[in-house]
Amino acid sequence: MRGGVVRGDGDGWVETPIGPRWGRYGAAGLLLYSVNNVGEIVILLQHRATWVAQGDTWALPGGARDSHETPTQAALREAWEEAGIPPAGVRVDKQKTTAVAGAWCYTTVIGFIKNPLIGEGNAEAHEHRWVPINEVDTYDLLPGFAAAWPELHKCVQELLI
Fold this sequence. Notes:
By secondary structure, this protein is α+β, with helices and mostly antiparallel strands. It is built from two helices and nine strands; from the N terminus they run ββββββαβββα. Helices cover 19% and strands 37% of the residues.
């Protein structure tokens, strides 16, 4: 389903030692990078809708993992649902666990897409924007993403070497 909000068996809050977290089986997101028409490395950011948890912040397309999904499958599905990014166009380079709370974890999948495009998304975002990599931290980031960004930035830089 595109345009609306998709519900899977992973949707739901779980209690962890540091408070509730979204995703009964954990969660995953896609850090998608590309090169724009002036040769800059750009990152796809999502301006989260105000009605979602920690809304009106910027983050990556992502969400709850379903019981049958790997982190990569979940991240690609979420990017398709939320930003209209076709999974077939993404080259997955790496995945990194960026948050752990007891048995729950968030995995960031890092991938490259040749053409920095944005398709039709769903209601979970106000907008999507390709942002130069060195400007990401100037946005009002989702706190968990802000905490992970320095290490994720480094990971993308290492992939470019």
